[in-house]
Fold these 2 entries.
Entry 1:
Amino acid sequence: MSAASRLVLGDSAPFDPTAPLTASGNLGRRTMVDRIVRVIATAAALFAVAMLVVVVYGVFVRGVSSLSLSFAFRNPQGLAGGGIFNYLLGTIEVVTLGAVIALPIGVLTGLYLTEFAGPRSRVAGFLKLALDVMQGLPTIVVGLFIYGLIVIPQHVQSGFAASIALAIVMVPLMARASQEVLLLVPGSLREAADALGVNRWRTVLTVILPSAVGGIATGAILAIARAAGETAPVLILDSIYNPSQTTLDIFHGVPTVPMLIFTSVELPIPEAVARAWGAALLLMLMILIANIGARLWLARTRTKMAR
Amino acid sequence: MLFALCALAGLLVVVTLFDLVYQLVKDATPAVSRFGFGFLGHTTWKPGFNIEGAGALIYGTAVSSALALGLATPLGIAIGLYLSMIATPRVRATVGPLVEMLAAVPSIIYGFWGLVVLVPFVKHLEPGLHDALGFIPLFGAPSTIGISVLSAGIVLTVMILPIISALSRDLFLTVPEELKDGAAALGATSWEVIRGIVLPSTASGVGAAVVLGLGRALGEAIAVSFVIGDVNAIHGSLFQPGSTLAERIANQFQGALNNLHLAAMFYCGLILVVIGMITSIAARAIASRFDVNRTLGGGVL
Amino acid sequence: MTAGDRTGGGVPGDPGPPGRLRLRMESTLSSATSSSINGGGPEPSRAVVFDIRDMAVYYGQNRALADTSLKVYRNLVTAVIGPSGCGKSTFIRSLNRMNDAIVGFRLEGQVLYHGHDLYGSDANRVEVRRRIGMVFQKPNPFPKSIYDNVAWAPRNLGMKHRLDERVERALRQAALWEDVKDRLRDSALGLSGGQQQRLCIARAIAIEPDVLLLDEPASALDPVATASIEELMHDLKHRFTIVIVTHNMQQAARVADRTAFFSLETIGPDRFGTLIEYGDTETIFRGASDSRTRDYVAGRFG
């Protein structure tokens, strides 16, 4: 092939390879476009972080003055005084019951999908779809569901109904977390147990679950943190309660933190609003700390299991 | 034995879902039989006169979600690109979780904050927006209160941003290094590699992420209820208050005037279920080619 | 290919097509230090494309490649051979700055490209890659049509004029045109391994780079596909300067004008690759100076 075979086309200025290695041809413009895109993307990320800061700071600055030990451990006095102990307790009750219901169901479902169902199983596919749909349900709809299922027949709104609704919110999260952790367990463990002639379920109980426990626990914490902040279900199912007493009767109205905030917002009493901010700050801090803690632990679990 | 328990759990999940639809249909029946499909088109909502129509709610839901999607999609993709292609691994490991934290904040906090911080801010913003963009009917005359569809849209944007950006980031990271190397070796800038290789090959996954974000926005009740005003009207301007399906339920359920009022709200719930199912299934269908191996659950998203 | 190519003598650089600047010629009398490594016979007085001086590569604290010096000459095929892990890939990827993305990568010494420092502060990485193209070991076609694979980079560079011709010529040069001319809009992923690799070559030459770096281009291919790739070398070197890494000695013997032999050295706990010997291919394979080279080409190790 001779020189004549070299392409000499009108628009492409033949470049000189011996010229210095600075941008030639249209590279100057393209580099600028590249830089602009970088700036935009970085700005977007900064915006997101800024939003987080703005929201957290906004709640912090309005709620911090209300925080104190007595705030957390005393009951309300009147419309605006005292603490929010009964609300905190109520949230703990409702969420705990919901978790007690959701955890086993979620983990068992996750177990089914990873250990017992074939990869091409139609049942497994359908179950996964069901879990996805369940996860995508607006929580207010879950509230409506339980209202019809439990509140109407029982003629009373209750913490119990709210627990069931929260359990529905938590199950898909638990199932997914369980799956993810279980999938990390090396197949070699299962194969070794099979080769030794051990029953599938025995393997699961004694070998697989123990190594997945850490990840499942963090998944549970994250699911619980999520449920603790859910307002829509309690708004529908548990909005009638005694606002100044603690109660352990979960089959009637139980005060919860989200309800406190929701009902205090429009009150013309600044102290009540301040108390709501304190409650909001407490709720937000607990959830954020639970999230950060769980993530860090989850990251450690992942690296441990990857070894 | 364990197998039986697991299978039972799975069965319970499926049964619950079916029961949910059944219950909603049952409890919505008084309204469905009374209003039929006209419920979707009529906008009058006067429980005292036994007239309910979800037209304004559907409009509000659509507009606020469209706004949120319009803002959060480019932002989310840009953040996903930043985290996967521009940030150093150390920066990615700090900023990534921070963005995901946005999803951990409960909706009631967003609502409360929205009411007290965002709404006044929007009120300040409105005159400027009207001056600049007033020729578009969306940006009509500024109102005296910031409670508006715009505020709802902005709150929703912040709430769905982490979904889109985290999923986008994960998707962009799955593009094989060898493809990006091959593109770079041809003298392309990073943006050209993104535009030519990364974005096209992850398009369906990003689409699924957007649909998931949309689903979230459509069903959000609490945060929206603080900032949109629960006003049953259709306005052209974003600066006016409005209402959405989910928010109407949140605001009026406990004070329902009569059974028909209640049933009408169940009817709204039914519409929301249908929308929620469609978005979940659509997202799955779009993303079925991708195996994004991460915990969408765990409470963070 | 004339005799002058292989044995040196005063073959001037290709004067180039109209409009191109004359290439500089550098006198290349061997220096005392490099004569043993860059050995054998009189140096051809060709233009030097790469002048690599005491190049060393570190990944973090680990030295991967030690003090390598050699010159790559214009319009020749220069092969890089050696046992696995001796730094051949590291070496070639350093020639177009593809190692920049690797965390901890550090290069010492100098890599001069036409006299310009490739790693200098005013060297634009994207520009470097525009001039020095690379084809990778595993074919990596984009998930696009065959046409778009080849046309993608020219479009980026603004070469919109007569793009169809450019694509066709690149595909012809890569000996792929006949296979794909009727299905240019089909996905490139439907091609066989050998065809995909030729597509990658077409893709690289479509923008008319100055240099083509080939990192074991045929190692993932069957013998027939390999043979077709090797045939390309003879034609392509008239237009480009080619550096090819190969673990297949016979391949180097078949296609290369000059050959560089790298191997692993161990000094205490430190294991690194280094250039052992470099010269005309005939010399390296028939009468190498270093015993390690002789052992390797005789198949006694690696």
Entry 2:
Amino acid sequence: MTLATEREAETEVTYPDPTPPVLGGFQGLPARPGWFSQHLGTAAIGGVLGYLLGHWLGNVVGSGYTNIANSGSNSIAVTGGLLLGVLGWLVGIGALNYPLAKIVGLEPRPDYESTSWTKYLRYTCDHKVVGLQYVIGVLTFFFTGGLLAMGIRTELLSPTTHIFGPGTYIAIVSEHGTIMMMMATSVVVGPLGNWLIPLMIGARRTAFPRVEAFSFWVFSAGYFVILSALFYGGFPTGWTGYAPLQTQAGVGMMSYLVGFAVIGLGMMTAGFNLAVTIINYRAPGMTWSRIPIFVWSILATCALLTLATPTLVAAGLFGILDHTVQTAFYVTEHGGSSFLWENLFWFFGHPEVYIMALPGFGIVAELLPVFTRKPLFAYKVAAAGMVGVALLSFFVWQHHLFQSGINPDMRPLFMLTTELISIPTGFIFLVGMGTLYKAKIRFEVPMLFCLAVFFNFLIGGVTGVFLSDVPVNVTVHGSFFVLAHFHYTIMGGIIFAFFGGLYFWLPKMTGKTMNKKLGKIHFWCMFIFFNMTFFPMFLIGLLGQPRRVFEYAANLQALNDFASVSAFLLGASFLIFIANFVWSIFIKPTPSPHNPWNSLGLEWQTPTPVPYYNFERIPVVLSDPYHYSEDNAPAVADLGDGTLVAAAASSPSSVVEDPRPPAQ
Amino acid sequence: MWRMVAIWAILSVVLDPLFYFLVGPHIPPGDMTSAAVSNQFDFNVLFLIALPVLLAVWVYLAYSIIMWRASRKGVPEPVGGTEARGHLGVQVGWIVTSTVIVLGLFVFGIVELITTAGSGGGEGPNPIWTPTSATILPVQVIAQQWKFTYRYPTFGGFESQQLVLPNDTAIAFHVTSLDVIHDFWAYQLSIKADANPQLDNVAYTTTRQTGSVTVRCDELCGLWHGAMFNYGKVVSKTAFNIWAKATEKATAANTKDLPPFAYTYVPDANGSDGGYYPDNVDPYSHSEVYGATPAKS
Amino acid sequence: MSFGGRLSVVLGLFIVAAGFAVWGVVGFLLPQPPTVDFTSAQPAGAPVNLTVQTVGSIGNGYGNHPTWVSYLVKNPQGQWIHSTIWKVPAHTRINLTVEQFDSGSPLRNQQWGRVQGTIGNVMTLNGKPISVYNSNTGNGVGHTFSIPTLGISVPLVGVNPNANNICSQAPCSSPSSVVNIIRTSFVTSGPGNYPWQCFVPCGLGFLFGNGGPMSTVGYMGGFLDVEA
């Protein structure tokens, strides 16, 4: 049969009318309206009740023990409180309704499309709603961590005058690092991955929609868990949590350990879900060489999320046991080893930073063709590079431990693997530079962010090669040089890419357009002040200032002050973004043109707002979405209603043919 | 295209030597010890290679932003199709070049590690790269929350808060901790070694110049990590011997009360208050380390 | 919702979030123990008499860690203040008196049994001058008063743990409770903020004894704020 006749013979799949959902209850039981349905408010109530119950249970169990009575701090109560608080949060939002109903034998309520804005406050199986929930969640994490960074730079204005006490300063440093790392693991996979992947591969949903929603609600619970550290006196170990300082710390440490376990659960579920979706839910014709490069980056990232995070959860569990029930996994004196934590943590920790780098590469590679009107250069090299980075990232972790007293034979081995991983990491530059060659570049706001990623990640990546060289590592390990390196790669890489992706895809995700002028001001302020903040830190580190210190040599004050003032301005630049975002999306929205960037991507070929089921008919994919400026280019996809997504002509202003009228 | 290459070549040829001769000699950690000289040289070589790489990308980005932007008059339309999707020569060339550079850097790094006896980094309890000198002065660095103290086993094992070292001598730093993980970072000596409880982390260097040394703790170890620093000095061999013998005599009474010198110590958890594990349980692990012999100086 | 309604909701949420952040910072992050000022209690250049006491557990009435060991300081008005941040003048002799009410133990590092950095490197223990104390003898060392960056360290000898009048809650006073009086003097250097700590890991219930009160300013560590 030809494609056309096949489609005629296909029976129409009908979907139920989008009537308001049956809220609360199970089928057959009366529905509870409005305030008594399950939403963010009930989640909060559940969380508080769970916390109180867990804390009380912990006190009942633990108060009698000598070390708890002597120290006056009950880690068991805090751990119990946090864990049951998370459980209560999940019960409150309704994340456990389906499994509980199935266990008891009742029929769980079906998933209806919800039309009211309150769907954003609920546990919902629409991947697009989850994606937008993640946007708010990720931005909340980011700005909280950012405020803490302002606190750090305030303290470092003077080596002798102290705004915060030294214990509080360490707590702020640790909190900043942990919140940012927790956020950055999901900053692209969560919002953009969940929102875009099914649309980019021509699917109606992800493989496990409930798991996807669960990953968001667990992620948001993790925010409160890690934030609770500040109210418990903080934890003194930095985000790396080295034992045995970890075992010596007070109850704030439990917020870190439980927080990472909870976020780890969110990471594993989100990663697993998207990986299965990409592998199994691709539309017909969407072969591996036709999937958008962003999808490749998410696939590589999800492999790491799924495989590396369990190590962190196990390491955290050992830490919780050491802290609550006095096991000695990490205590050398009793037969454990402080090296055990170091190795377990970094075995996760290194793939973790590639979890943060790869989606940034994916966004940049995805956006470049749209704004250069050229196909992606060396698509296969880009995909191979991402897979290569993901694979190699498991073999480099001991470069964090070069001076730690590891077996000296390990140092050349890990120097080699770390230097080798810079090869596939560099492919993104080959791809970017090749795509820019003889292009016709439109400097829209997303494109500016992509170019900034190249600039920043170049500096970050090259300084990484410096760090991988063991002799130079002796000079710079543990100093501000390392700090500048990872801020250039993580913030300069994925955070810039994330903002570029937000500006690019928000018109599609929300149907509203962001103010272009404010976007450009935001970009230039962020880019300039970012470089002014972190570039001096390379010098500060070379001149001998270690990380995480509240006092430093007096002759470094000028450099520190320069970095601090630039950091305050960098923080202020985000206010421009917040103002733009809130004004354009919520307060005075302007409808966006249907395909403002004239992108060939499949996600842009849906109506706005995108219906619950994404595509009326599953498209048949005919080629990759990069046939810009090509005569007689093949169509990207057959949308099944007699229309084809055609390739763009040469001119940058030519409109991508979309035969259907834009839905408003 | 050739304009780009020309600009890049000129910039590289001019800036690289400028860096090497003007900035290079001032790159930390200086040249007070053999490890410091080697690490400074290593950094400079890496920078010499990194600078042309940085320039290549920057020149290309600048060129493309200026010459190929849509708002510039007369920019030709881009050409898509198979030629724009890949170019085997460019791809192969890129991969080969980056591999060659990276493997070259690897070999260079190994050579530096071996010829400088570990380049000042902590080699663990069984170091494989050791100085060739006949006499090596052992200095034990004991890290505790929140101060470094130093023991000199060849002078009766006295313990001092001051770090004094002789010039023109190969020194073995045996770094260990009495509680949590610290890191002994002697900046001008270019020594960096983590202090782990019950582990002897050995780092070597040979002093070449006299001068003052800044020691900072480089691994977050609790409340006063930021205040855990002290100053030391490298003095002439005779001055060092005078100081060491005088201090040995002056602190003899206290040295008798110290535990006998050992490369690692197990803090007496029952002795100092503050036990975390139950008090009447023997805290000492009876596990053994097979095959490893503690490093002699 | 109307434009005005949306604007007010957003502004309201922003104010709530900002308020929460301010409350967190002001209520939890900024507070530190008060600074006790000794610079104006005597004429310029005259020695400063600094009297402190060390207690086994601070008890109720001094914050939310009643089981923690702590220092207390007697301010120029004679009251016992729970603070470890003391402001003293530069280049001045400080006559330190420590009323040590806590029991002791062997030192983790007997190096801290030496009196260092004080005038004559000596201290008096209940009137008897000593310069080295072997913590493996007698009642051990209860705490040390150490300013690592100035090279000052004084071992504070412990009292008999089996005495029937050992002080259990601050503020302690003698002769109702058994005490060791330790006196020593040192000269402050130039202006600066000098951290001081204790080297006896006496944080009960914390691994290696260095958590809890040992790691919290206000209990067993603080600042000597030397003003010009």
